[in-house]
Amino acid sequence: MLRLACWAMNTRFEVALWGRDATYLTAAGEEALREIRMLEQQLSFYRADSEIRHLNVYAARGPVPVEPGLFRLLQRARQLADATGGAFDPTAGPLVRCWGFAGEGGRVPTEAELSEALRVTGARHLLLDEENITVAFACEGVTLDLGAIGKGYAIEEAADVLRDHGLPGALIHGGTSSVYGLGVPPESDAWVVGIRHPTRGEERLTTVRLRDRGLGVSAPHGKFFVNEGERMGHVIDPRGGNPVRAAALAAVGVDSPTDADALSTALLVLGEPGLETIANGWPDAHALVAVQDGSEEEPRVALRAWES
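and the corresponding structure tokens:
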């Protein structure tokens, strides 16, 4: 078993892989991490030289040609936005900035600021020309932010690299939010991954088993500020423009880590009713959501489809 890691997309990516030849494993693992770093250069909201930043500057002026892989990702992002009723939205960048979460800290926006951010938020503003492989925005102010899908996509592309190398198994994760189990670990039939409890520090809420399957986990406590005694988390509901209050944690397991990443964010926004959305659109998915009821000190797990 070999472990390699790198820093990208403001998080630590790690790959654990195994096989008979350490030199071959090292080469395969380094190639997978190189793919992740390359995708950061393309997808970063913050890098001045990224393709996403280029789109955010120029796509409101007219169609912009993009790399085919990015075009396919944006197509998938728009499909996921439609399928979740806008609970996941790749154009939520203006809302993130509006609440001050694009940098450090956070703040409560004025009604006018929030109204303007909502006006330019929505996947309907994303104009994709499949014939010419171009992207345009329907109006000025639209901003792509792939923070809720980018890590899952990077992991999916890295897993394809490892799969091409014919490895018997590998586990790839990006921080605590996106994981993919490729094949199986030594002497086991699945990779076992823990989901951290949203309010009890290092305690596990449950564990899940992954075999050629992705896992996305979303929670609002990563970045927050307190306003009049209320904790305001960094995950924003794109439909109404306010920080998420429906759930304390959401997790989704599906074959695609790209989908898992986006769907866990959507489920966090939707709360318990979102379980039906996931079940209808992804019948093979597993999901759980920890609901923060006002009358309870601890979150209630609304559904747990995995064995703990």
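(Above: one complete record from the training split.) The first helix runs from residue 22 to 43.
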